[in-house]
Write a structure and sequence with these properties.
By secondary structure, the protein is mainly β. The protein folds into three domains: 62 residues, SH3 type barrels (Roll), CATH 2.30.30; 60 residues, OB fold (Dihydrolipoamide Acetyltransferase, E2P) (Beta Barrel); 57 residues, Nucleic acid-binding proteins (OB fold (Dihydrolipoamide Acetyltransferase, E2P)). Helices cover 2% and strands 54% of the residues. The protein contains one helix and 16 strands. The strands form three sheets. Strands 1-6-2-3-4-5 form a six-stranded antiparallel beta sheet, with no helix packed on it. Strands 9-8-7-10-11 form a five-stranded antiparallel beta sheet. Strands 14-13-12-15-16 form a five-stranded antiparallel beta sheet, with no helix packed on it. It is flat, with a radius of gyration of 21 Å. The termini are far apart.
């Protein structure tokens, strides 16, 4: 099914010049001189890289049929990461290349959304923040706080990140799934 570029929406799966991808962002531009443009940021399913594509407002874009499914993380082993469909209790194994960048944010029973195109998982989306427990960190030193002082901490998944001085082992914190940085206490 083809639609005009002006009708593109964030999250849609499209096919363009032989590549399929997901629309991450869209911006309509109308320069003072000339026709309107649509700038779309698209992440390719084949390469995993994002790129900006410029469409004329009258260009046609093919929409790829896709399905989003909510799954719950169970465990990871040498065959891949295993997720459970909570409605059917079916286990789905996703390859490491798909889960790779999110590996250190996955905890038991974390609900994620997996995008399937033609029955094949192509991308995984985590919630905007993930709640993790600090397992080890240096003790906070009082005094040197003229700026926002931070220290390194390790969370239950092995991720190392900078946290404020008041965070201690055992504390639960929220971590951004986009940039893997401290957001707040949980």
């Amino acid at each position: 099914m083809a639609i005009t570029a002006t009708n593109l929406k964030r999250g849609q799966c499209i096919s363009y010049k032989g590549e399929t991808g997901i629309v991450l962002g869209i911006e309509h531009r109308t320069p003072g001189k000339g026709n309107a443009l649509v700038m779309a940021t698209i992440r390719s399913f084949q390469s995993g890289k994002s790129k900006d594509i410029r469409f004329a407002s009258s260009d046609k874009v093919d929409i790829v049929q896709s399905e989003r499914q909510k799954l719950e993380y169970s465990f990871t082993d040498q065959t891949g990461s295993h997720f459970m469909d909570t409605s059917t209790y079916e286990t789905i194994t996703l390859p490491e290349v798909l889960v790779g960048e999110f590996r250190d944010l996955l905890i038991d029973a974390l609900a994620v959304e997996v995008l399937f195109v033609d029955g094949k998982a192509v991308t995984i989306e985590l919630p905007s923040t993930v709640e993790l427990q600090i397992t080890e960190s240096a003790p906070g030193v009082k005094g040197d706080t003229a700026t926002a002082a931070t220290k390194e901490a390790t969370v239950e998944t092995g991720l190392r990140l900078q946290v404020p001085l008041f965070c201690n082992p055992g504390d639960r914190i929220k971590v951004s799934s986009e940039d893997k940085k401290y957001v707040s206490r949980a």
